[in-house]
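Troubleshooting entry. Yesterday's outputs looked truncated, so today I'm pasting the complete records for two proteins to confirm everything comes through intact. If either block looks cut off, that's the bug. Protein one:
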Amino acid sequence: MLPDIVRWLSRRSLRTLHSWGAVAGWFSYALSPTYRRRFKEHVAQAGVARKTARAAIAEAGRLLMELPYLWMRPSSEPIRPSLQVSGDALIAAAHEQGRGLVLLTPHMGCFEVVAQAYAERYGSRHPITVLYRPARKAWLRELVDTVRTRPGLATAPATLAGVRQMIRALRRGETVGLLPDQVPPDGMGVWAPFFGRPAYTMTLAARLVQQTGAALVLTWGERLPRGEGYAVRYLAFDEALPQDQTESAAVINRAMERLIMQCPQQYLWGYDRYKAPRSGSIAAAFAQDHKD
């Protein structure tokens, strides 16, 4: 039943889905005291004006409703209705150097479109592999695994095998995409400040760069108003990454903060960023692949 609904939604216009998503976002906010509390706490922690942050409530709903539109789009069709790209000279520079490339994006705007836009533009020569956490529901896991794989776009699960897959991709001069503000499994992160509060932060991004010599670029996909499409923005990562894991995590968190403050209206403030990590470690992947 649910896959049928997803397919039905995928045939609606982006403008319609974003309209419905705005309503869904406010319903979720109204019906969940936990979500409201977390949203308000995170906004206050970041020092964002409440009036500015209110727009993010509707944007969270739009994030959910646009997924069928992007997932079910035929792989032969370009992203519609409009796709704007800025800062792509940074991508071209990394490709010209023959280096692997790590793209970092926070939970802001449409992070799903970032990988698709990259694959559409560069994937034929420089494929991208994105890290994801497999869904717990079997039907959803099967659906997501199917629709996310596209020409020039591969997925890697947040497992030991997935880490090895990303390392191999970077060593081939390909690209990897990560959400560094996602809480990693226990053993794959360190506690580092995020908007002035300790948050368990992945070390994966920095270690991939340090181990493979890959370039590092920031990116995010802005959701344009009235369902007009998306603007994918690439920005320079302007701080050197220290070798120390805690220090490098703090540097990456600062980069995410600067990016988020460019458009706090589209950040997912309800995400449980400060939670304790779940059990399970894939840190051994780095040690093993370093030997290989």
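Protein two, checking that the full record survives here as well:
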Amino acid sequence: MKKVEVKKKVKNLVPKLINIRRYLHANPELSFNEENTSKYISTLLTDWKIQHQTNVGGLGIVGTIEGKNPQSKIIALRADMDALAIIEQNNVSYSSLNDGVMHACGHDIHMTCLLGAINILNNNKHDFEGTIKFIFQPAEENLPGGAIKMIKEGVLENPKPEMIFAQHVFPDLEIGKVGVRAGVYMASSDEINLTITGKGGHAAILGSFDDTVLAASSIVVALQQIVSRHAPPTVPSVLSFGRMIADGAYNVIPSEVTIQGTFRTFNEAWRNKVHALITNIAQNTALAHNTNCEVVINKGYPVLQNNKLATDIFTKAAIDFVGEENVIDLDIRMTVEDFARYTQLIPGCFYRLGTSNKEKGIISNLHTPTFNVDEKSIEIGTGLMIWTAISALNNQ
């Protein structure tokens, strides 16, 4: 297909895609619970006579569209499906119908764009070489994430794609613009859980209790030296604690204090070293206060690294599709993305789709109760996904 044909076909499909997006937005589901979302997507694919597998890695969906010479080259496109535990505050006709659940991260847009791309590519599969594998992934937002489950069930096999692409809405960019960064782009993430225990007691009777609250406070302060004193100067890192529960009283020292935090960085070797430092510092600090500290680190998503070749293919396709002035070089981000699971195994590119529109007041950040997008982004995102896939298949 030529670029002008892609744009025309997408434009004709936009009304249907907007209806799909609004249905998905109004019916969000949390991670690992995307049952109706999965059924809805499967029904559409079935109506379009597109073969696919359901319940892959839980509620995931996988399928292929074979062009001419289907074994000549295989690439994959991925969209995530889950929503967030946020009460929507948008006054729109398609606002969430599920109390306390909202598509505040744009996954409704991701699914819609991929569905649009599938529809058009399937109807024009004799106009391109190779095979396009599509992946609808559940549970991007919560550990352990849906990617690892789908990978374990063979999503990257039979057939095995040579590279994979995914897009994500980005309110930092105005509608019409897209962004990408080659190499390291998004951080790894780990959940830090500390439990400090000791003998509780009456706060006024000194010597009758172990001061678990003081121990916990000292641990938080001591752990700050990890980034400030040990981090390599070229590796950005964040170690923050956002939750501490000491359920005592004005005059009661509790026997247990729990602390939860996050560690994020861009280097896997340094990441593993920090895990050991957290354990040693926390336990030794607790011991100095005659208390104990149990350390549990839930290892989260790895560093997301965009492959140079895949990024070059996307960048050239994006420049061709939206214009060089609308393709932005992005900075690294401390946020995380389950797509990194795929890029650990095969070359991939994760890029950003501009969705904000100041004139329309569409400016809210991701993960906020007023997040929304300019729906013109559906047309751009769908067309760009198609053109990226065709460009990747044509690249030798």
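Both blocks look complete. Sanity check on protein two: The domain at 3-185+303-394 is CATH 3.40.630.10 (Aminopeptidase).
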